[in-house]
């Protein structure tokens, strides 16, 4: 299947939302879904297409914690720092991740594998402290959980790299030769 | 498509058998299992439990259906499942456990003892949900259908009497609906407790043609998950509340502003909206009347301040979620300058009950000024964490010890924090305080949306106050100086106190600054962010003094003060 130009995908969405006032947050959410983060180029593009001042777009993009202006890691680790998690020691878990990954809050590891973020209450206080990695939820976490998570996703990252290389080879072999 | 209120009533009659065996009195062989798929249980792999259960039921050739259901409240012991008839509650499930339950209970009719609820005090197994003290001591009104119906099924909701309240009000004058809500004494469950009827009356009085109903499902309070649980457990009740509100004030459009961090709640709402549209319960000329109403979802993008009504509206309009001075109030000038009613999820979910059971029924529950029930999320240092619904006015002691069985063995209760960053601490000696809007306010805290965090002696009050203040600083929209700069300075002072470098003058400055931020901030966020500091100073000043004068943290929590 041919890859659709990401900007074309975004355009389609912007057109659908052009009728509705106030769609900027929604468009930026879509843009982040498509591009992974909101680069200055993407923000400028959105501003132009929606006929909004670039400052308005940047203002909204920087206001909400959901939006990131830099590339995010393959695995986004979210440590809940809501009250129930905090009083049960999620502060220490967050510190453990910082140390393990060598990054600060909202930073990504140099290999692009992990981004560390703090989240404000996932509303799952009864299983506190909670850590999520992408969609996966880890209940009753401890600093040891942090170590296990990092080890597991590093290993998966390695395996996926192998698999990707393997799949790449397979695809190359299956591609028909260009017509003479 | 339902064309009239009669169609709805007839449909309900046809659907009644779905729920007949799910009543407490029903008896007979097992017919259905409802498995909780709320966030706590999902994290404990309830999806694998459902898959294994379905497989085993099929393999054994049993005539038992398997459904999803919303949060039963005992999240700590998840995944949970209920077997009907009989309402037998099983906890701590995994695929092996449900295979066993399928063989022994569903096929052979024998209870599986090791997965039944055990009373934390006596150790006795209690099989039936209504007999478990945790449930017996509650008054589940808004949550009555949770654990009984499948939240993904419109048919279940209609069979349980859903949308009947909406059908009823279509036969009334809109003023009569507002009057009923006023007579019931319903107050906003989002925290401030403003009378809902008065808000609706103000919006109804506006001559504008376009009006909006906005459901606030932002729930940014750390330590609160009531709204998430209501939406996940009974999404149609929220839509029905919005329909009734729309009819009462003359609005045709509804928006649910929901947190992006709640993917399951969003999914359940989307499903409910789709089902309601298809059934003719949302859209044009509903049930043959000339009333039209539709609902859309607006995804929050992560900002605590968006729980504040004017900031929320700015966010819905695609702008930065900055608050603005009131008046004009949203009921006068809200979305796109039109009159807008903003109600919280729990407020709206109460509305169908008020209509169905009558305002007098509602007003008969609770205290003189705080009517009805309130849902709390109980968390922190407590044996049973989870979701509860109790009549207004019960004591904190009943909630913490009667329902939650207090802190774990060997721990001593120190304080209960209510209302999140806008609230405060109640020390153990005030445990007999009735939980209602006024009593809590008198003690320097608030009901808030209903988060309740139990703290034991291992928690340092200064540290927790710092936690909330840092939260407030981080979430300040930055528009007004007292909030933007004031909270930053407060965090610095608190850092000095927990770091052991503060003087008594710093402590005095902190208190003064907290008062100033409270007085001078523009919106509810800044006005309430100092509350945890002020409240802990009121009840736990000793602890501050120990930090400042003796360079000692009585709870042993502040690392820099450990020698």
Automatic annotation (TrEMBL), chain A:
Residues involved in [2Fe-2S] cluster binding: 80, 85, 121, 125
Coiled-coil stretches: none
Organism domain of life: Bacteria
Cofactor descriptive note: Binds 1 [2Fe-2S] cluster.
Keywords associated with the record: 2Fe-2S, Iron, Iron-sulfur, Metal-binding
Family matches, as InterPro entries: NADP_DH_HndA-like, NuoE-like, NuoE_dom, NuoE_N, Thioredoxin-like_sf
UniProt-recorded Gene Ontology molecular function terms: 2 iron, 2 sulfur cluster binding; metal ion binding; oxidoreductase activity
Cofactor(s) listed in the protein's UniProt record: [2Fe-2S] cluster
Record flagged with keyword DNA-binding: no
PROSITE patterns: COMPLEX1_24K
Family of this protein: Belongs to the complex I 24 kDa subunit family.
Name assigned to this protein: NAD(P)-dependent iron-only hydrogenase diaphorase component iron-sulfur protein
Organism: Thermodesulfitimonas autotrophica
TrEMBL record, chain B:
PANTHER family assigned to the protein according to its UniProt record, in alphabetical order: NADH-QUINONE OXIDOREDUCTASE SUBUNIT F (PTHR43578:SF3)
Residue span(s) of domain NADH-ubiquinone oxidoreductase 51kDa subunit iron-sulphur binding: 462-507
Protein name from the UniProt record: NADH-quinone oxidoreductase subunit F/NADP-reducing hydrogenase subunit HndC
Listed Pfam families: 2Fe-2S_thioredx, Complex1_51K, NADH_4Fe-4S
Similarity field: Belongs to the complex I 51 kDa subunit family.
Gene3D superfamilies: 3.10.20.600, 6.10.250.1450, Glutaredoxin (3.40.30.10), NADH-ubiquinone oxidoreductase 51kDa subunit (3.40.50.11540), NADH-ubiquinone oxidoreductase 51kDa subunit, iron-sulphur binding domain (1.20.1440.230)
Keyword terms of this UniProt record: 4Fe-4S, Iron, Iron-sulfur, Metal-binding
């Amino acid at each position: 299947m041919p890859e659709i130009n990401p900007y074309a995908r975004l355009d389609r969405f912007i057109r659908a939302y052009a009728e509705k006032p106030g769609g900027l947050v929604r468009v930026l959410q879509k843009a982040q879904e498509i591009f992974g983060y909101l680069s200055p180029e993407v923000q400028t593009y959105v501003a132009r297409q929606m006929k909004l001042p670039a400052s308005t777009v940047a203002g909204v993009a920087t206001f909400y914690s959901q939006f990131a202006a830099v590339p995010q890691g393959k695995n986004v680790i979210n440590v809940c720092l809501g009250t129930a998690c905090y009083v049960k020691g999620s502060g220490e878990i967050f510190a453990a991740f910082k140390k393990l990954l060598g990054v600060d809050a909202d930073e990504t590891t140099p290999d692009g594998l992990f981004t560390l973020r703090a989240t404000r209450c996932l509303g799952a206080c009864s299983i506190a402290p909670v850590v999520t990695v992408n969609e996966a939820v880890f209940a009753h976490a401890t600093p040891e959980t942090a170590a296990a998570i990092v080890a597991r996703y590093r290993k998966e990252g390695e395996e996926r790299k192998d698999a990707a290389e393997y799949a790449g080879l397979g695809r190359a072999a299956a591609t028909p030769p260009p017509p003479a | 498509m339902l064309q009239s209120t009669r169609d709805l009533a007839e449909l309900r009659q046809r659907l009644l058998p779905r729920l007949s065996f799910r009543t407490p009195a029903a008896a007979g062989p097992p017919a259905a299992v409802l498995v909780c798929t709320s966030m706590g249980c999902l994290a404990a792999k309830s999806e694998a439990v459902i898959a294994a259960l379905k497989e085993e039921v099929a393999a054994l050739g049993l005539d038992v259906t398997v459904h999803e259901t919303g949060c039963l409240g005992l999240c700590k012991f998840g995944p949970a499942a209920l077997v009907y008839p009989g309402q037998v509650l099983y906890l701590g499930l995994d695929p092996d456990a449900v295979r066993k339950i399928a063989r022994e209970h569903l096929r052979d009719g024998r209870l599986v003892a090791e997965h039944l609820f055990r009373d934390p005090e006596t150790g006795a197994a209690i099989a039936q949900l209504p007999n478990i003290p945790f449930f017996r001591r509650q008054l589940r009104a808004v949550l009555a259908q949770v654990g009984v119906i499948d939240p993904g099924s419109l048919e279940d909701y209609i069979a349980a009497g859903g949308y009947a309240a909406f059908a009823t009000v279509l036969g009334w004058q809109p003023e009569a609906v507002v009057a009923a809500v006023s007579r019931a004494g319903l107050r906003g469950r989002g925290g401030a407790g403003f009378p809902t009827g008065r808000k609706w009356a103000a919006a109804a009085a506006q001559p504008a043609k376009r009006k909006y109903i906005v459901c606030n499902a932002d729930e940014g309070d750390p330590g609160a998950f009531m709204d998430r649980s209501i939406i996940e457990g009974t999404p149609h009740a929220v839509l029905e509340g919005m329909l009734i509100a729309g009819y009462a004030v003359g609005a045709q459009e509804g928006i649910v502003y929901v947190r992006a961090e709640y993917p399951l709640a969003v999914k359940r709402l989307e499903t409910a909206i789709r089902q309601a549209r298809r059934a003719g319960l949302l859209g044009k000329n509903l049930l043959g009347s000339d009333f039209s109403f539709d609902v859309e979802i607006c995804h929050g993008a992560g900002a605590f301040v968006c729980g504040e009504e004017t900031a929320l509206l700015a966010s819905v309009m695609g702008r930065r979620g900055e608050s603005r001075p009131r008046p004009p109030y949203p009921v006068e000038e809200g979305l796109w300058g039109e009159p807008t009613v903003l109600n919280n999820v729990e407020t709206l979910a109460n509305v169908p009950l008020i209509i169905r059971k009558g305002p007098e029924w509602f007003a008969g529950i609770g205290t003189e000024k705080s009517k009805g029930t309130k849902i709390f999320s109980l968390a922190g240092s407590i044996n049973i964490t989870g979701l509860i619904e109790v009549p207004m006015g019960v004591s904190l002691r009943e909630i913490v010890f009667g329902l939650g069985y207090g802190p774990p063995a060997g721990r001593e209760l120190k304080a209960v924090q209510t209302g999140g960053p806008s609230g405060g601490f109640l020390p153990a000696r005030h445990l007999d305080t009735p939980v209602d809007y006024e009593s809590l306010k008198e003690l320097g805290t608030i009901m808030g949306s209903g988060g309740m965090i139990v703290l034991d002696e291992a928690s340092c009050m200064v540290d927790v106050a710092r936690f909330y203040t840092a939260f407030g600083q981080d979430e300040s929209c930055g528009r007004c100086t007292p909030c933007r700069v004031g909270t930053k300075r407060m965090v610095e002072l608190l850092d000095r106190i927990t770091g052991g470098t503060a003087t008594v003058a710093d402590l005095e400055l902190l208190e003064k600054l907290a008062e100033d931020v409270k007085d001078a901030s523009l919106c509810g966020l800044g006005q309430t962010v100092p509350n945890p500091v002020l409240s802990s100073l009121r009840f736990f000043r000793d602890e501050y003094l120990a930090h400042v004068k003796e360079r000692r943290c009585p709870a042993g929590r502040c690392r820099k003060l450990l020698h």
